[in-house]
Amino acid sequence: MLVWLLVIVLLTLVYYYGQRRFRYWSDRGIPHLEGSLPLGSMQGVGKEMSLNELVDQVYSRFKCQSPAAGVYFLVNPVLIVSDLDLAKRILVKDFDHFHDRGVYVNERDDPLSGHLFALGGERWRYLRNKLSPTFTSGKIKYMFGTIRDIGGELLASFDRHIDQGTPIDIKLLSQCFTCDVVGSCAFGLRCNSLQNGGSKLLEISDRLFRQSAASTIYYIATSTFPRLSRALHLPAFPGDVSSYFMELVRSTVEHREREAIERSDFLQLLMKLKNDGTVGPGEDGAEEQSSQKITLDEATAQAFVFFFAGFETSATTLAFALFLLANDSAVQERCRKEIVEVLAQHENTISYDALKEMTYLDWVINETLRLYTPAGLVMRVVTEPYRLEACNVTLETGTMVIVPLQSFHRDPVLFPNPERFDPDRFSPEVAKTRHSHAFLPFGDGPRNCIGMRFGLLEVKFGIVQVISKLRLTVNPRTVLPLQLNKSSGFPEANGGLWLDAARL
Fold this sequence. Notes:
- Keywords: Endoplasmic reticulum, Heme, Iron, Membrane, Metal-binding, Microsome, Monooxygenase, Oxidoreductase.
- The chain is of the alpha+beta class.
- The strands form 3 sheets. It has a 4-stranded mixed sheet, with helices on both faces.
- The N and C termini lie far apart (80 Å).
């Protein structure tokens, strides 16, 4: 009897706590989606709709009423920005009030979680200053040879499908390419995913990125209740995934140091930070002031986030770009014409400098990123109370704020006929007519994507390698119009993206 009484009291307290939390936005006069226990406003996420689609519902419903609207992730009130000027203030002008992402970190039980993307406060500033010199143009050019070496294997994979007369799963092929590139650059690992149609690293990565409704809720729950999650020793990543990457980096570093091996890759730069505390001058030529060394665990976490950022996002962008080119022969021919003309000026060799001259290809990639934004949301946490005059509200410390990139990119007011693939939207004449923050595939401000240039280089090289040699068309196995997977955190076409290729 006493047990049942305690259960009733506990349930009653939980109910009233939820009711109080779900009045948060109405008490402040902010338009919002209603919430209820246990998922807040997230009922159906991962099954009936993706998280991006939920956010887009809020954006579309309230954007004409208010520069921001509310939603509830579990019992956590979240503010979704719909005004571009406000987005700019949050990401850039008033960054000091929004410098953390609110991502769950538990370095005690899961050292891999202590990576640059997740860390906040002074830890983030320290590591950002350490890592920024590793992503200068010079350092990225330093790794370009690795990308080019793997390019031949990418073409060989296409050749096998052409000779066998079989359709190409372009998402899988793109994943194999980016896995081989980033695996080599991040870990010094020869994965041979393209040669073998898969690899151990690709298998582990698939587990990491293959999201479900349950994993989405777990991610949000640990981020919403970080202290409780750390007290319960909850990891940020599955244990076997963390163990794999920790052991991979440890053994590779030990081998290189024992044999005095040096390679032109990101891991080598991290080893310099571990052993010397610096990798040399940054983009502006100034030496990094602190020579404090990073630990092996910190180096491993940064190698992991380099892989995390450069593998799936680049594979997604490359796959959709090749699909869109295959689906639009006129754009494909225009793109090929530019590629051939530029390569002719560089001894028909795909070089770092040649890629920089392909401006129409830049428009194609930007339009792909607009239509299929790999990271459709940017999350920030209020780190100091922030007065939002337009809404007559003060945002409290700890409040999560979302900048809905995908919603901006698909807004017909910002991009007329938004479903149409039109690279000319990014010509200088058209682009200058838009708000500076209408297109933000990598975020903006001090916490924008640090590996942006490497990711773009990887995608650009892959497109040039393929389009310069092959003509692509869409195989009937592709289900058109495309429908995206509701449970995936990245754009993923139901049924896959299937292409046919023919030699020029």
